[in-house]
Structures are given as C-alpha cells and as structure tokens.
Amino acid sequence: MPENERGNVFTYETVIDAPIQVVWEFFSEPINLAKLSKFPKLEVDSATKMVEGGSMTLKIRVCGFPFRWGVLFEKVEEPICFIDHATTLPFLFTDWRHEHQFIRDGDRTKMVDTVIYQSVLSKTIVNVFLERMFRQREDVLRQLYGQ
Predict the structure, then answer these.
(1) How far, rounded to the nearest angstrom, does the alpha carbon of residue 47 sit from its chain's CA centroid?
(2) May I ask the CATH architecture of the domain 3-144?
(3) Which residues contact 53 (CB under 8 A, 6 or more apart)?
(4) With bands split at pLDDT 50, 70 and 90, how would you rate the model's confidence at 147?
C-alpha cells in the first residue's frame, strides 16, 4: 500500500452482485453505513443527504471507548464515486479521506475503496484494522445481495 504526500494509502476492492445503480442507491443513504459496520460498531448520529458539502456525524466504539467521527462529503458524482473527508476524528487519526469508486461490470459492480490517512499508530497496525473492517463489510454486502 503506497504512501503519498497526504499520508498512507489503503485500497480495498469488492465485487457486488448487483447493478451499479442499485449499489449507488444503497451507499448514497448514510444510514446504511451502520448496517455495514459491525466492526467497529457505529451509529449514524446525524446526516444530511449525500450531496457535495453535506455532512454526517458518527458515534463509534473502539475497544469499548466511544468516539465521534464527523465527515464532509467533499465530492459526489452519481453513480461513479463519492469522497468523504473527516472533520472530527478519534485521537488515533490526524487525517482521513475516503474515496468510494463504483465501476459497472455488466450486471455487477466493482467497488474500490481508497483511504488516505495519517495516524499516530503504525501503518501496519492501521492497515490490519482496515483490512478486517472492509472484509467484514464485504461479507455483509455478499449477504445483502445474495452472493
């Protein structure tokens, strides 16, 4: 996972057995993030519609400790991608930018998540955490879309 001038880069790809518009509709509803996230467990505290300049506040628990996570929807390009950038982060992170890219693959959708982050934790530790988190989300998506 390469680094760039903004921080460490983590990428995860998931193939979803559903058309791009169906996948987009699911991901464009901020409340659905809670359905995907079993690790770490989170709740959507408040959210606007997913539009450029919109925002969302999450409550997240890591090892039993509660944190707030605020994000700004920096870019929204239906049904191709959206980018969220953290405005409030747990103390372990100093920057977080997450690009969600959706690529049509016939009747399926390839989703590419790219996270650029800075953290007080080592890149190795954070990447293990992110790998586990995205793999768990992939499992939930496979259940939702009958894979």
Answers:
(1) 15
(2) 2-Layer Sandwich (3.30)
(3) 72, 73
(4) low
